[in-house]
């Protein structure tokens, strides 16, 4: 018996196929994922920054309330401005708080302007205290006690109004803008008119912002005549403020100007110095007013107050032509002779006033 060995065919062993991924490819995949995450984060940050920027711009565009360029709240139209008398303080540049700071502003302006008039005249020998110093102290305007309280209320009102949404239409805004521009123009013209001073000397009237006083100091002006002329001149200076300019020339056969070749701002310091100069003038000499009158015209003031008590020759056509737009008020002191036709025509042709004063009446004062 033979043992037969049956060989059974062997089936091949199946080995699972494995995929080997290189290490470099795995790192690239991780890097791509990291880039995607960083890109998403960058977009989120940009969106957040844009939202912050929009919020900031909307906050900056909100109205802050009714205030002018200086940052102070505007008072109502009934609040009187002590600086220039304007009725609408938005155009004249003053508010309630400006009344409390008026003296401080004047002092700062005076320090810059007073340097124009540092020259002194040798004729100012009277050391007495100027008369205008007493009057200037009396003319100081008291500071309003409620100015700070009114300012705080106005600021609160402006903040309250800024929260409310603006419901005005485009047409209403345009109409309001046109009305505001018209009111601004009218109020600007009004404030400019307020800068003019009105001076009265022996009944003659001059209105303007610049003045020259040409006064006789010849020998015939001795006694009450020169004293009355000095008092009238000092009182006229009290009507001026630092917005106005002036100069003074006394004359006989020579001229004695207070300031040479210039007009000076009418600050308190300059007016006090001018009063000292006026009080130091005495009468003497002859009457020759032509040169000081022409020098006064060369300053191109709005008005000249010309006082004389003597007879003199005058080329009327030449003087009137050189005067141009300057008006001349003529004050004639006389006792024996009749009113001068020449002086009357000088005032008439320059659109000024003329007055004849009998100095015999002044001698009795």
Spans where pLDDT lies below 50 across 5 or more residues: 65-102, 112-145, 188-193
Classify the fold: give the CATH topology of the domain at 197-363.
Answer: Rossmann fold
Report the total helices: 13
Beta strand %: 5-15%
- Write down the oligomeric state: single chain
The best one-word shape is: rod-shaped
Give a short account of the largest sheet.
Answer: 7 strands, mixed
CATH class of the domain at 197-363: Alpha Beta
**CATH-defined architecture of the domain at 197-363:** 3-Layer(aba) Sandwich
Number of strand elements: 9
Structural class: alpha/beta
Question: Could you give the topology of this structure?
Answer:
Elements: H1 23-60, H2 89-92, H3 96-100, H4 102-113, H5 131-138, H6 147-163, H7 170-194, E1 197-201, E2 204-208, E3 210-216, H8 224-237, E4 245-251, E5 255-257, E6 264-265, H9 268-279, H10 290-298, E7 303-308, H11 316-323, E8 327-334, H12 341-349, E9 354-358, H13 359-363
Parallel strand pairs: 3-4, 3-7, 7-8, 8-9
Antiparallel strand pairs: 1-2, 4-5, 4-6
Helix pairs in contact: 5-9, 8-9
């Amino acid at each position: 018996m033979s043992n037969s060995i049956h060989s059974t065919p062997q089936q091949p062993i199946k080995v699972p196929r494995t995929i080997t991924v290189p290490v470099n490819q795995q790192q690239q995949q991780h890097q791509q994922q990291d880039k995607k995450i960083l890109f998403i984060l960058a977009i989120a940050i940009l969106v957040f920054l844009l939202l912050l920027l929009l919020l900031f711009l909307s906050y900056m565009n909100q109205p802050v309330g009714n205030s002018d360029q200086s940052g102070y709240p505007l008072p109502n139209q009934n609040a009187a401005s002590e600086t220039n008398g304007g009725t609408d303080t938005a155009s004249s540049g003053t508010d309630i708080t400006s009344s409390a700071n008026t003296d401080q502003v004047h002092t700062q302006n005076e320090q810059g302007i007073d340097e124009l008039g540092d020259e002194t005249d040798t004729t100012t020998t009277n050391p007495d205290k100027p008369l205008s110093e007493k009057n200037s102290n009396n003319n100081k305007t008291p500071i309003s006690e409620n100015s700070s309280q009114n300012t705080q209320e106005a600021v609160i009102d402006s903040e309250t109004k800024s929260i409310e949404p603006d419901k005005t239409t485009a047409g209403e805004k345009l109409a309001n803008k046109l009305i505001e521009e018209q009111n601004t123009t009218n109020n600007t013209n009004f404030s400019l008119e307020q800068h003019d001073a009105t001076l009265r000397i022996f009944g003659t009237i001059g209105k303007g912002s610049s003045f020259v006083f040409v006064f006789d100091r010849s020998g015939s002006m001795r006694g009450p005549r020169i004293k009355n002329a000095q008092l009238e001149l000092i009182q006229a200076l009290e009507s001026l403020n630092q917005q106005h300019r002036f100069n003074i020339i006394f004359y006989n056969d020579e001229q004695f100007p207070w300031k040479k070749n210039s007009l000076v701002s009418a600050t308190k310091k300059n007016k006090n110095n001018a009063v000292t100069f006026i009080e130091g003038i005495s009468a003497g000499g002859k009457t020759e007013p032509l040169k000081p009158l022409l020098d006064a015209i060369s300053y191109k003031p709005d008005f000249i107050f010309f006082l004389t008590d003597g007879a003199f020759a005058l080329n009327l056509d030449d003087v009137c032509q050189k005067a141009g737009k300057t008006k001349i008020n003529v004050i004639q002191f006389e006792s024996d002779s009749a009113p001068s036709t020449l002086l009357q025509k000088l005032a008439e042709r320059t659109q000024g006033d003329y007055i004849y004063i009998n100095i015999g009446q002044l001698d009795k004062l």
